[in-house]
Amino acid sequence: AGAKLKGELSRWILGVRPWDFALIVFAESHHGGHTLWPLDGPLGEGVPPHALLDVYRAVDQALGVILDGLDRSDTTVAIFAPHGMGPNRSKDYLTQAAVDAVNRKFAQRNGGHAIESQPTRRSPMRFLRETVPIRLQNLVAQSVPLGVRDYVMNRSLTAGHDWSQTPALAVRGDVNGYVRFNLRGRERDGVLEGADRRAYERLLTECMLSLRSIETGNPIVSGVHLTEGKFSGSRSGLLPDAIIVWTDEPQTAEVDSPLLGRIRGWDDTGPRGHHRSEGFMITLDSDSEHGTEAAPMHITELAPMILNRLLGSQPGANGG
């Protein structure tokens, strides 16, 4: 219904006055992809099998309403999605439990005492985060200011740790898993530096790559990327120090590892559908032959392409 109304409203707005440039966003396909993506098994229950297809059809029909109202002889139309969608394969809900296990193993290898898998100090925020049902948490989150949400999330992740024995911490991510090191000289109570940091990086990589799905026995991690030296911006120190890239293996509540043993994460598997890096763009131009294919482009090339079209349509402009 939202897509239909947006198509009618957009057609009316585009006809009110001449436009040099107009951008219309159909978020329905994005939200639909997250909440209505068809899944097999218990995770697929509760959503009609063609619900997402109905959303796509509604957006397609709305685009037709808009296109029918345009003078296509002097109008360039670009229909694009900067990213795609697919079934949610993120295992971010396992990241903290896996990092806790790596921290224990790191302490044992360095002659220290094993660190508890959970923070040693009682944290009300973390207790609520781990025990209150996710749907109820989401309802509460929508009713409070963003600053309150950020504070609660921060405390649920950081409170209760003995930082003298915590070399790293998982930071809540999205598609990938994020790990931040407790570095001496950067963090208030940092413990890692020099050779210890390199040893922890090697152990983290080895352990993450050893994680296997309980159901299939297949790896759930395809790579661990260390960000040090790869980003030179002034705020690069705020980035995660390690990025965990998951395989396309279906989500699993538990994983096993010959190095860490069995691990179970938070009961939070996220949305049904999630982002994919590949998008698409269809360009309709009176000067171009229909049905031709262009070379793949990067998302950062989209804005310059539009600017060149606008400059090229003005007298004296060379389109450069």
Explained architecture:
With 320 residues, the chain is of the alpha+beta class. 36% of the residues lie in helices and 15% in strands. The protein has helices at residues 2-16, 28-36, 51-68, 95-109, 124-131, 134-142, 146-158, 194-209, 302-312, and strands at residues 77-81, 84-87, 168-171, 177-181, 212-213, 221-226, 242-246, 254-257, 261-264, 273-276, 280-284. A hairpin with a 5-residue loop joins β3 (168-171) and β4. α4 crosses α8 and α5 packs across α7 (146-158). It is elongated, with a radius of gyration of 24 Å. The protein starts with a helix and ends in an 8-residue tail after the last helix. Residues 113-121 and 315-320 have low confidence and may be disordered.
List the topology elements.
Layout lengths: L1 H15 L11 H9 L14 H18 L8 E5 L2 E4 L7 H15 L14 H8 L2 H9 L3 H13 L9 E4 L5 E5 L12 H16 L2 E2 L7 E6 L15 E5 L7 E4 L3 E4 L8 E4 L3 E5 L17 H11 L8
Antiparallel strand pairs: 1-11, 2-10, 3-4, 4-7, 5-8, 6-7, 8-9
Helix pairs in contact: 1-3, 2-3, 4-8, 5-7
**Unreliable runs:** 113-121, 315-320
Helix content: 25-40%
**Mass-distribution shape:** elongated
Q: Could you report the average pLDDT, rounded to the nearest whole number?
A: 85
What structural class is derived from the secondary structure elements? alpha+beta
Query: How many DSSP helices?
Result: 9
Rg for CA atoms: 24 Å
> What topology, given as strand order, has the largest sheet?
3-4-7-6
